[in-house]
Amino acid sequence: MIESYVPILVILLVSVFIGSAIIVLSTLLAKRTPTPIKLMPYECGMDPIGGARSRFSVRFFIMGMLFIIFDIELIFLFPWAKIFDKLMFFGFVEMLFFVLILLVGLVYVWKKGALEWE
């Protein structure tokens, strides 16, 4: 039984060795010439203005969380669609219930105004 894990252990050890070797060699061999322009933070091709600790609106984070929630919903739909013919009517009703719950959540968020970007 334990012999079946030997290839996984070998791959793990080789990948750790290669990753470590790349980091060590780049640290030892890389030429470093820091200049003020190279040390300046890069922001989409524009010169940075102001401090790095600017505040974001809470709406930004709420929008991100909502995107992740509804994106995960889509991930659950793909396996369901793959085995839809085996699940038959029961699978359809279960997925309909799942989508309905998420739709109620979307309507709630919409009514609360969390999707408004001001």
Structure description:
The protein has 118 residues and is mainly α. The protein has a single domain, classed as Methane Monooxygenase Hydroxylase, Chain G, domain 1. The protein is 69% helix and 0% strand. The protein contains 4 helices and no strands. The protein has helices spanning 6-29, 36-39, 58-82, 84-112. Helix 3 (58-82) runs antiparallel to helix 4. It is flat. The mean pLDDT is 86.
Strand content: under 5%
In the predicted model, the low-confidence regions spanning at least 5 consecutive residues are none
By DSSP (H or I, 4+ residues per run), the number of helices equals: 4
Sum up the overall morphology in one term: flat
CATH topology heading: Methane Monooxygenase Hydroxylase, Chain G, domain 1
- Which structural class is indicated by helix and strand composition? mainly alpha
Element order: H for helix, E for strand: HHHH
Number of domains: 1
What is the terminal separation in angstroms?
A: 60 Å
Q: If you compute it from the alpha carbons, what radius of gyration comes out, rounded to the nearest whole angstrom? A: 25 Å
SS elements, strand count = 0
The first-level CATH class is given as Mainly Alpha
Please name the defining characteristics of this protein.
flat; single chain; 118 residues; 4 helices
Helix/strand layout:
Blueprint: H1 6-29, H2 36-39, H3 58-82, H4 84-112
Summarize the structure.
This protein has helices at 6-29, 36-39, 58-82, 84-112. It has 118 residues and is an all-alpha fold.
